[in-house]
Each structure stands twice: as C-alpha cells, then as structure tokens.
Amino acid sequence: MVPSAPLSSRVTELLEGLRAEYDALNQEASNMRLFKDEYEQRINSQISEIQAVQQNLYELERAHHKIRQQYEEEIMRLRRELEARGGPVATPSPFLQQPPQQQPHQVPLPPQHQQQVAMSQPHSAGMPHGPGMYSGMPPTSGPHGGPNGSGMPHGQPPMAGEPHPGAYMGPPGQYGPGGAVPVNPHGQPMTPQQQAAGIKDRKPVMTPSQGLPPPSHQQQQGGLPPMSQGLPGSSQMGNRQTPTQPPRSVAMVPTRGVVTDNQLADMDLEMVPANMKREGADWFVIYNPKVPRLLNIENLFTLEHNSVVCCVKFSNDGKYLATGCNRVTQIWNVATGANECMLADKTATKDIDLYIRAVCFSPDGKYLVTGAEDKQIRVWDIQKRTIQHVLTGHDQDIYSLDFSPDGSTILSGSGDRTVRLWNLESGKEVCKFTIDDMGPRDAGVTSVAFSPNGKLVAASSLDKMIRLWEVSSGNLLERIDGHKDSVYAVAFSPDGQSLLSGSLDKTLRIWDLGRFGSSGRSSDRVTARSTLVGHKDFVLSVAYSPDGNWFVSGSKDRGVQFWDPRTSQTQCMLQGHKNSVISVALSPTQMYFATGSGDCRARIWSYETLPTPM
User: Fold this and answer.
1) Three-class SS of residue 204?
2) What is the CA angle 373-376-380, rounded to 5?
3) Is 608 helix (H, G, I), strand (E, B) or coil?
4) For residue range 301-331, what is the model confidence (pLDDT) as tens digits?
5) What is the DSSP letter of 529?
6) Contact partners, residue 270, CB within 8 Å, separation at least 6
7) Does residue 252 sit in helix, strand or coil?
8) How much is the pTM?
9) Closest Cα to residue 421, out of 386, 472, 460, 464?
C-alpha cells in the first residue's frame, strides 16, 4: 500500500489553484472595466455629436424659417404689385402670419370689386364699420390703396402679417383695444413694469362711438338741416390772422441727422412726474423730459360721427372746422362745438359707401371743396348749401385737396398718379401734373400742398417719393427721395423754406428746399435736414402751426405728437383716440388744433404757451 501525499502539500496545491483562478477572474474584470470605460467614452462622444447635430438642425430650421418668410413676403409683394396692374387677385400664403381676429366681418365692396376677395377685419357690434382696408379708414375704390391709411390693394393683408395702416384693433374693453393685452387707465397698453406691479385700471375706458344712431331719414334722402345763423358768408370769413405767442425762451440747437430719443410712447404714465403730464377723463399728454415744457394742451370738444372721420380742416378765419366721413361733410362751430350744417350730394349713388377723403375751405370762406371715392371733386357754396361745380377728370379716388393762396385755383391729388389744377370760377381743369416715372412701385398721389407763395406744388406718393412742380410752367423741378416706405403726408412751412413729410416708415422728415425756397439761392439743392423718430407706427398726417413754431403729426399708433422744427425734438405726445389718427389740422388764427380718427370721432384741442417754461 502506497502512502498518501502529505496533507500540507495538498492544501498548498488547492490554494495555488484558487489563486490562479482568482488572478484569471481579476484580469477578466480589469479587461471588462477597460471595455466599460472605452464604451462610456464612445457613448459620451456620440451623445455630444448628437447634441451638436441637434443644435445645428435647430439653427438650420430657424434660418430656413426666416429665409422662407422673406421669400413669402417678397412673393406676396410681387403678387400685390401684379394685382395693382390689373392681374389676378393675390392670395395670401398660409405661411405668412396673419393678424389676430376675434370676430371677422366681411366688408361689402362696390360692384366693380365684387369679384375680388373681400377683406375680413374685427369690429365691435357697437362700432360703426365702413372702412375696409383701413379701419379707421374707408376702403379705396381703386387698386392703389387708400393714402389715409393704407397703400395696398383691396382685400390684401400687408406683408408679414402686419395690420393695415390705421387698421381697427377691436373695441376697447377689459383688455383695451383689441382685447389682447392689459391696458392702463386711459385704454393704452400697460408697460411690463405696470403689469409686474399689478397696476389695475382705475378709470373706465371710454368706448368709441358705441351705439351711434343711424343718419336721420332726412339725411338719408340728402336733405340738410337748416344752416345756423352763425355761419358767415364771404363778408365774415375774410382776412387770415396768425395767433401771437409769447417769445420762446429755449435756445435753438440745430440738429441734423436722425433724432431717435423721442420714444414718449414707451414711457410709463404712472412714473411720469405730475408737472410733465396732463390727464383728462379719456386722454392724456406726456411731455418730453429732455426738453423744457413750453405748452399746455386741453381737450375742448369731442365731435361724434356715424362713421370714420377721414379728414379735418379749419376755415381760414379759424371759426369753423370741416370734417369728412361716409357720404357727409359736416361743418362745426369751433367756439361752441355745435354742428352748423351737413352737406351731402343727393344725386350720389346710395347703395355703396362714399367716403369723403379730403376737404378744404376757400380762403374767403365762401366755398368748401370735397374729394371723394367716386373720383369727383365737389365745390359747395356754404351759404346756399348747394353744389357750385362738380370737377371730373380723375380716374381714381381723390385723396387730397388744397387752395392756392389767392383762392382762384383748386389743387387735387388722386390715386391715378396725377395732380391737377382747377379754376374755381369756371370749374375747368387748367393743368395736370402726371407721375410717369413710376418704376417698380405704384405712384398713387397721397397728399398735395401749395407753397405759401403759390408758386410751387408738392405731392407725396406711394412710391416713397415727394415731387415738386412749378405752377407757372408745369415743369417737374425735383424728385425728393429718402423715405423707406410710402409717403402719406406733406406740408410746407409757413415761411416756404422747408417741407415736412410723414411716411409709413414711421418717421417724419424736414427738407430744406434750397433754391426752391422763398429765399433760396440758385445753387442750393433740396436736402434732408433731419429725420424724426418717435411714432411707433405709420405716420398718416402732418401739419404746421401758422407761426412755424410747431408742427403736429398723427399716426396709426393712435398718438399725436408736437414737434419743435428748430430743435427737431418732440415737445409732447397726446393720446386721446381709440383708433388711428388719420388727419390733423391747426387753426390759422387761434391756438387750436383738430384730430380725426377711425374711432368715428373728431376732437378739437387747444394748445397754449406757458408763461414760464417748466
């Protein structure tokens, strides 16, 4: 019998086996850890790559969206231009953003446009709605759009979903006009600071002309109420006088270039010091804190209408104000706010809207000239309340009128790209200035004005240009280019040295007329003195004060601003309408001004110079 190995050697052998197995497992675990770390690195690397790709995709998507938006806008613009030249009706792309609409309303169109797409726009049940493309403005009957707030063809939305100039933003209510954002006590949008602080409306917001009664049966039939005995004839409405003001004590600092620090519309009313603001029941004024306060503004009268107020104009003696709306021109007593008479053409077609887009008194006060959507100019004998002449010849709506300083000639501008002169006595056309260099954009005339000496005619148009003609020769003297969008308003300074313009690019410009001014040298050219930035939306109307110390602008932002032409600074910003301020006018003899708006109201205001600047 063979003896067995010693026990100690057997145990040693087993331990060696276990050690070898442990080492093998430990090595395998180490290898697995290495593989794990390598895989984790690969996974992290792939995650990083995926995140980078995802970020690139987001950036490419945003860039694609922006480029596509630009292409869609350009295509829409070209379609609108094609339609304006007689092509098919442009259809908006579904990709373009559209303005929010709460209760779309299909606006009826004249018979010649019934085959076109009618434009929808929100309106209040209590709000008279006649204007199609301009809420605050009636729709044009021609393809050029309405200069009192539009510039675009019928039934077409503006590019990139921007509301039309003067577009009605909905009735004021719990959340202000349009019901979209909180408003302050005056019906204006609240600033983020006000919303964060939880400021609530403390005063009721006035609803614009809700529930206005329709015209009386007599008015619908063309009859006019008796003229009040206070309305003068030619013997009473005579010499024009300029109101006198105390000397200005502010140092005049000449300013050239763009003035961009006038954003009064962005100021928080609650944070403005009491001496730099003025508040009424449904209006307020904010004065520019960067300049001395020189004016005090008060609301005198609110003149209710049954439709959009397209135009306002004072008589030369300052006693009367004419307003134009749908089918009716009204004359108001400035001293009392009373309605003196209503002028309506009994022979005009009654089954369509007929907005009076322009009004102008003759210098002697005997006549009132009106321009309307039916392409006709009517010369009214105020005392007799009869039509003296009907001037025909324009092929599109009449958008602007003016009288020569001597009162012998009527100036008219139309969407048909012509400016015409008419003899008041005979009612005959004596001259026609035609815009025949229209290029890629439409050149419908939006505003016209005589120079103070009657030697020049200025006209603004939808093609961003202002043109100057010489009356005696009929020659085109100058094309003034500088605005970036359609120019909707022009006005000569009282001294004839400057021209003021307002545009859809939201700016105003003052132009030095150089050799064309009343005392210019033959070598001087027209130059832009300054560009004034302050409105938040389209500038629709401008006007000078008779002494030249101020000019006023009205905008689709519902605001009115007073500007100092010597410093190019805004003195104050007035908010008192619930829709676009379509027309502004200053009294030739008193320190009054008037505003007409898409809220179916005209308002008469006073402005007075403070004895001591604040």
Assistant:
1) coil
2) 110
3) strand
4) 999 999 999 999 999 999 999 999 999 999 9
5) E
6) 184, 194, 199
7) coil
8) 0.65
9) 472
